[in-house]
Amino acid sequence: MADDMNTQDDQALADEWAAALEETGDAGQADIDALLAADTGAHASNRLQMEEFGSVPKSNEQVTLDGPNLDVILDIPVSISMEVGSTDINIRNLLQLNQGSVIELDRLAGEPLDVLVNGTLIAHGEVVVVNEKFGIRLTDVISPSERIKKLR
């Protein structure tokens, strides 16, 4: 029964592709190139030159968070994490870890933690306890303009 449904779905998909190919007619690559060339010539004056992604703005204006474009991204969820420290170990030592093992980190005791948003450092802070849960008190926050510059 399931095989019949799959073959019917496959046949319907094949029919759709066949109909779409018939609609295109006998247009070849030469026809497509001619249409693109005609489109480029007709609209070249109306198009702005595209800037390369990650390029520095042409003006020397300060990067700000003001403007209407920011409203589009304000509700996008991001992952925030706090990094106590890190270290590199080889696979042999990784496989030997068990309950009670201690791993030495590259950070000193009492040193501020890194606050990362989607892997990008945005602040430093210290651990606090809030309602029996861990929290972090921000002690040093990177300015918004510096954070935006780091994204480029």
TrEMBL record:
GO terms for cellular component: bacterial-type flagellum basal body; plasma membrane. GO terms for molecular function: cytoskeletal motor activity. Residues 73-142 form the Flagellar motor switch protein FliN-like C-terminal domain. One of its GO terms (biological process) is chemotaxis. FliN is one of three proteins (FliG, FliN, FliM) that form the rotor-mounted switch complex (C ring), located at the base of the basal body. This complex interacts with the CheY and CheZ chemotaxis proteins, in addition to contacting components of the motor that determine the direction of flagellar rotation. Keywords: Bacterial flagellum, Cell membrane, Cell projection, Chemotaxis, Cilium, Flagellar rotation, Flagellum, Membrane. This is Flagellar motor switch protein FliN. It comes from Pseudomonas brassicacearum subsp. neoaurantiaca. It is found in: Cell membrane; Bacterial flagellum basal body. SUPFAM superfamilies: Surface presentation of antigens (SPOA). The lineage of its organism: Bacteria, Pseudomonadati, Pseudomonadota, Gammaproteobacteria, Pseudomonadales. Belongs to the FliN/MopA/SpaO family. It is a peripheral membrane protein. It holds the Pfam family FliMN_C. The keyword Cytoplasm does not apply. Its main location: membrane.
